[in-house]
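Form 7-S
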Amino acid sequence: MIRTLHKMGLRSSMMYTAGLASIGLAATSWFLSRDDKAAGQGRADHWGLFVGEWAPTFFAMGVALRMEEMRDMKRRETAEWQETQQQAMRTPSRAGV
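Output:
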């Protein structure tokens, strides 16, 4: 699933940003809901906790995507190194000239 999300263009920085935004949204929703006397304090606590629980999921997905980004970078570096080695083997050496 993480590899698919990575191929779709989702990056770890986006998930970290979503995690931070969900923390801010949780605090904001709690502050805005707590003053609504008709709904009561329970509603404010409910919405604040509900949105706040998203943050760990976003951060965990960010870590997983970062690991996938590192694997992808390693694959590209290995492929580039192999290509360089193959080109070096195809090019005749001028050491004996």
